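Query protein
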Amino acid sequence: MPVLSTIELTLRDEKSENAFLGAFTKAAGAAGGIPGLIELKAFKLLGAERTYMATTLWESEDHIKAWVEGPREQELIAAGKRDMLASSLVRRFAQIGADRRWTAG
């Protein structure tokens, strides 16, 4: 069952914001090589300074766990928390109606 992971990030300062944007652009280019990752997007929160929402869509919860628990990702997460983030909030959602797509219009 597909799983959507969201991460709301508030970055410390302009330097951190520029580093995040560079890192996200690089990650988006390499996303095709991550097993189970279907989609990777980022959005800037309107009306807020340095706050973003990164979303990833995965084939399953197991794919997320395998990626997050990998040694390279653990190092990146620790570095991001230490060097860039003022705060973060991670949430995961299971898709409903996985046997069909709901669309507007």
